[in-house]
Amino acid sequence: MSVAVIAALALFAGILAFLYVQQKSTHTLSRQVFTGLLLGSAFGLLLQFTFGDTSETTKAVLEWVNVVGRGYVGLLKMIIMPLVLVSMIGAVVKLEKGGALGKISGLTISVLLITTAISAIVGIGITQVFGLTAEGLTEGARETARIAVLESRSDRVSDLSIAHMLVSFIPTNPFSDLTGARSTSIIAVVIFGVLIGIAARKVMAEQEQLETPIRTFVEASQSIIMRLVKMIMALTPYGIAALMAKVVASSNGSDILNLLGFIVASYVAIALMFVVHGLLVSLVGVNPKTYFKNIWPVLTFAFSSRSSAATIPLNVEAQITKLKVPPAIANLSASFGATIGQNGCAGIYPAMLAVMVAPSVGIDPMDINFILSLVAIVTISSFGIAGVGGGATFAALIVLPAMGLPVTIAALLISIEPLIDMARTALNVSGAMTAGTITSRLLKEKQGEVESQHA
Description:
By secondary structure, the protein is mainly α.
């Protein structure tokens, strides 16, 4: 190990030590996370300018920095399935009315799909405003290799139907799904947890002497899992610092400059959808400023990790403790939002690519029939992204062929994919939390109306 590597790692260790000292003081988690983000980004920039993004020194430093970043993400992934399972069982057992579960699920999914349709419209509009097209995109060695991979994957997903996707949600082997073996494992575990909860309710109704033990067991399990989530959340500032250091240090400056127009347009579209989320929660009586302040640490982690699934534990915890969303709704919206109706990956991204590539095959992207078809396909396919796994790229592989468009454009943007994917993932998570907040407020209002009528 060279002196340069040792010096760089010593500096990174100093950053972690500073974050530890800050954590021991009375700073809020959001401030700690923001500090970790800034220090990690600064460290990454230092590596970039001192050694370059492809140097052996940078690679050696990032190999050790990744121990912190990947270790943190690994711990979050560890807790996802137990959290989803235990929380869904508890949510069903604690429901006062069993029929409420159907209303929660239906309303949550509806909000996710509606916001995805809106995000597709925003993506189409921004692409036109910026005048983005597929012309002029360069094809290097990486892009050529990526095109071959995408075309093979496109053939693999072309035969998927909505019926096939729905069947894939069934937990045929729940023990396998608890390991995350399939791309639909999260939804399968949700369904398994709901079925176990329903069975528990029936046992409680049939054998009253078992009601107290069942409720005690469920509450104890939930308490243990949530305590574990809080323990892992305490590591968030360190994980954010490591993840941001890797992203910044390994970014290629020339690629970013060449595709700056698409990057800026993507971030503008994503920012507009955050505004839409704020407007939607304001319609149900939630202050947008307070809302985004409460979910900021969760969005920061989603931005850094680029993983909606890994963000589920933080998502659920923030909804319950910060947004005061009931556990049943919080768990359903976080779980569904990680796989259905992703505003950034399944909404904005494929819509932008479709509009960019449409002229190359003689299609007018401003034709109303094209726009309506694109929005409909984007919305429907967003429900099935979990059925094929892979986020934005697979969303493009479903949408583009369905519109009669080539998939090669997705490969030509590979060099800037991580930079845009960070913001897309944060938007996905915001969409899930928006769905949970809206569902919670609407069902609470309806319950209030029912109570006032009986008063």
